[in-house]
Write a structure and sequence with these properties.
Length: about 260
Amino acid sequence: MALGSGEADAASFTAVRLASGAIMLAIIAASLGKTKKTIQSGHWASAFFLFLYAIAFSFAYLGLTAGTGALILFGSVQITMVTAALVKGERPGTLEWAGLIAAVGGLVYLVLPGLSSPPLISSLLMAAAGAAWGFYTLRGKGSEDPIADTAGNFLRSVPMIAVVAAVMWPQMQITGWGFVLAVLSGALASGLGYTVWYAAIRFHTPTRTAVLQLAVPVLVAVLGIAMLGETATLRLGIAGALILGGIGMTSLRRGSKAKRRC
């Protein structure tokens, strides 16, 4: 809504998004008595991947359609996380591979009608955003305090986006509504959402974590129908079944392992 309608430029949107996320998480950490721990938590490398994801994502969507951007983003996330898992010695089973293929196939089928020939620079930026998000997710698997770690990462990302804002200051412009949208994106969807994500991923393998994220386009489509009056289509139903079925297959292997241990 902010970038597509011109309510904010990419740099302004990202700056407000990261800053508001940092403020929200700092307030939550302070209310829980974790201010000192927050300052010590987080990692500069994780903060860099968070910053890279946010800034590349914003600039990429200035030149991409929603469908094309989603396919490049999620495809890049899958490649990054599955490759990292294989390098670390994880060997997904047949069901996990089948689930990954089914879920990715469902994503392609879902966005295929909206695909257009994308600009090279925008495509590379979105691929970089996907890789950065994949690495950010992988680094969060060992988090023992998701609130402190996420708050620390957001706080460390603020100086990075401040440098970009200083360089691009003459071109930056944002409306009041664009500012509100950026705050909502940063404080709620990013700050709180990424905290929950860090808390959840410690219980899943990198491959399963990669596949789980493919539920996002389905959830967005369903919410679009429920809240924005968008039309439910047969394509959405088939794609949703493929994606959710793929997620289910990756989870079945975990369930069978748990039963064998019992």
